[in-house]
Amino acid sequence: MSTVPEPDEATRTWWDATRDRRLVVQTCGSCGHAQHPPRTLCTGCGRTDALGHHDSAGTGLVDACTVVMRAPDAEHEAPYVVARIRLPEGVVLLSNVVTDDPQAVRIGDPVTVSWRPLDDGRALPIFRPAFTPQEK
């Protein structure tokens, strides 16, 4: 499996939540700014003492996407979708949209979180279309 960074001071809470298959968003309790990836300071107001994490709805919209047709290594099976997912909480995650029809994924498509397990109990958030092909 691909190398995934070890948790650090800024990301530990986020990674720990993935063990429970919870998608959390870091939010500043002072200014309300939401950010991803997690950091040790608020990029909205600069505070370091007011950051917390809140459960995400686990839904989002495809903000941008591309279909990778040639895998970079044997661990990836092409074709697959790499996408920016805009969550309703205001942050953007770079992830995969997992579907049987990668060419059908479009900007603006609704998606819902799913999980790709990692060997150490953590999981990577991936997304699946939140519609059936007939609805599109």
TrEMBL record:
SUPFAM superfamilies according to UniProt: Nucleic acid-binding proteins
Gene3D superfamilies, sorted: 6.10.30.10
Domain (ChsH2 rubredoxin-like zinc ribbon): residue spans on this chain: 15-49
Annotated ranges, domain ChsH2 C-terminal OB-fold: 55-116
Name of this protein: Zn-ribbon domain-containing OB-fold protein
Species of provenance: Nocardioides caricicola
